[in-house]
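Continuing from the previous page...

OK, I double-checked the sequence for Pirin family protein against my notes and this is the correct one:
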Amino acid sequence: MPAVTADTLSLPRLTEAGPADSERTVVSVTSGPRSYEGEGFPVVRAFAGVSAAALDPFIHMDQMGEVEYEPGEPKGTSWHPHRGFETVTYMIDGLFQHQDSAGGGGLITDGATQWMTAGSGILHIETPPAELVESGGTFHGIQLWVNLPAKDKFLTPQYQNLEGGQSALVSSSDGGALLRVIAGDIDGHAGPGSTHTPIAFAHATIAPGAQLSVPWREDFNGLVYVLSGNGTVGAEQRPITGGQLAVLGKGDRITVAADAHGQDSHRPAMEVLLLGGQPIREPVAAYGPFVMNTREQLVQAIEDYQAGRLGVIPDDALMPHVMR
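Thanks. Re-ran it with the corrected sequence; updated structure tokens here:
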């Protein structure tokens, strides 16, 4: 179950749709392939097969897990560089540790989010803490890459630790869905994340048979990703299930409904992410951990990394824990 829950009857409600509102229709629904990241933890490549123009300002997203690890099985990443964008790690269940060369770091758990602005360049690591490696347990989260416009590509690296309890909690108009706003402003409810690129990022739990209708900025793109469960999305009620991403067209509301029956056996409700942002509409040159505007900038990023100009691994560096 998601760590952050609440009684929806006691929460503020989203504004109901009015006669002048325009509900977004579905442009495409794609299924993310399964793969492995870092030292071998399972992921779903949520954005695979979707055009960069439809995703803008987002670059990449992995659903990490959901997996139930045995003792000794949890895995993460080793130290690696980034430049030119922001990495967002949202832990739904389980534990992850972060450390970077700019002094940021901490334990990500219980619905918390670490928001790292790589900017001009940074080194970091994300790995399960020793206690999770030793005991095993649930691991389920999201890593999202948010692009930076050219004017912000070389910002000084920054780190934000957003605890789960800081998220703005909102209910659907009928109380059947809980919305956790992590970043951006949705219907006047602002999440704690401070973003350079205007975006909205939220996690919703929708009870079986319930519907979530969310006011959405018309100048933002609209994406719905299903973490688990079954339901429909958009004005035409297009079927959608776990591991699928819906790209939506123009309009000022996003609607997702959960099927009355047939949700995942281990989760009583449908779990979805809502994402959108103001498209940057600039050239994108991406290679591995670098997201720039030109090939020349990519070459420079690689050279800077090799020369040690993107940061230095600290003396007290966090390293992946290995059971003895």
